[in-house]
Prior knowledge:
2 helices, 12 strands, single chain, mainly beta, 14% helix, six-stranded antiparallel β-sheet
Amino acid sequence: xxxxxxxxxxxxxxxxxxxxxxxxxxxxxxxxxxxxxxxxxxxxxxxxxxxxxxxxxxxxxxxxxxxxxxxxxxxxxxxxxxxxxxxxxxxxxxxxxxxxxxxxxxxxxxxxxxxxxxxxxxxxxxxxxxxxxxxxxxxxxxxxxxxxxxxxxxxxxxxxxxxxxxxxxxxxxxxxxxxxxxxxxxxxxxxxxxxxxxxxxxxxxxxxxxxxxxxxxx
Length: 218
């Protein structure tokens, strides 16, 4: 009996010692939740700052500015587009058009047919190619023109040069690029004047309009 009493006392002592520990564990503060990361800035779409070496003018129908893309290899001589300060990649979008010289007399006589295949390059200011873009267009009548340009000496105050056809272009720009250049690479054209291939630096190859940049502000 003495041994049983001793074991009972020992068990009671152990129980009294463990109880505060269990209670302390039960009262332990809950783990803190990790701090939430700030939400990423929303994408923004804007018209970029553009340096156009040859601005054709404003469209009478679309109210857009149309710019010649010259052939060449020097990015400084191309259509230069500045990208706003941004985080990560940005997306450049624009419409690419063939460059047609309209003649009312040739069109009415049925001799105004023209066909174009133009290729331009989107380059970094160091001359590295990011992406190529191309447009194909045929002209038979004035209905094939994308728009007419005002401010000319022709009938109705229109210019003879006009954009024909339309190809929507999307280019993904690297995160570290702040400026790019559009330069013509080649033009294969069949016009009333004959078959022409343009490669001479400075000669217009195509027309661009509706340039937009989608980016995440820095």
